Amino acid sequence: MGRQGTFNDTEAMMNTTTLPRMILSGCLAAAILATAGCSGSREDPRITLCKNLTTALQPGAQSVEWTGNENSFRRPEYAVIALTFDVVDANGKRSAMRSACHYEYEALDDTALNLANPFLAYATLPFKMTLNDKALSDADLVKLVNAEQRRLGNKAVDTLKKGASDMADKVRAGIGH
Q1: Is pLDDT above 80 for 173?
Q2: CB contact at 8 A, 69 and 46
């Protein structure tokens, strides 16, 4: 009888600690999957950032359609992502434009990995940006980058909240039955 009581106590203790752990594990798994799903594209994050910054500089545009991307590496100084694109306004009028983001070289040594994927040797935030060959001021670039980082951070938090909420709904639905 003592053994059965110990088993029931242990079982009860496991049930009270296992459920919160299962919920936490489920939420964590959902969050990881949700953030992994955010990336979508396999292009280098520096290219994506340059595109996002460029798009943010087109507030009145109906759409921005990318027409080209040329990456150049000036070792050991900087890399340039040069984008060409069409801006379509509300009337359907297209304007051909270009932008460039410059990323500082940050690697201490050349490694096989840096040589295989050259972008790995460069900073993740641009130190200079041009739009139609006109350089943004340092202050404008900092404001633009900060706004983009806030936007991406809010998007990640919203995705995590939705994943946690969906998981909590599933757990509540399972507990009710």
Answers
A1: yes
A2: no
Query: Quick check: is 122 in a domain?
Result: yes
In a domain, 85, yes or no: yes
Please tell me what DSSP assigns to residue 91.
T
DSSP characters for 2-38?
HHHHHHHHHHHHHHHHHHHHHHHHHHHHHHHHHHHHH
Domain count, the chain: 1
- Two tokens at 158? 């919203």
Which tokens sit at 147? 């706004």
**pTM of the predicted protein model:** 0.69
pLDDT digits over 89-148, tens only? 999 999 999 999 999 999 988 889 888 899 999 999 999 999 999 999 999 999 999 999
Model confidence over 58-78: pLDDT tens digits? 998 999 999 999 999 998 899
What phi, psi does 80 have (nearest 5°)? -125, 130
- What span, in angstroms and rounded, lies between the C-alpha atoms of 18 and 64? 50
Domain membership of residue 50 (yes or no) is: yes
Distance CA 158, CA 4 (A): 47
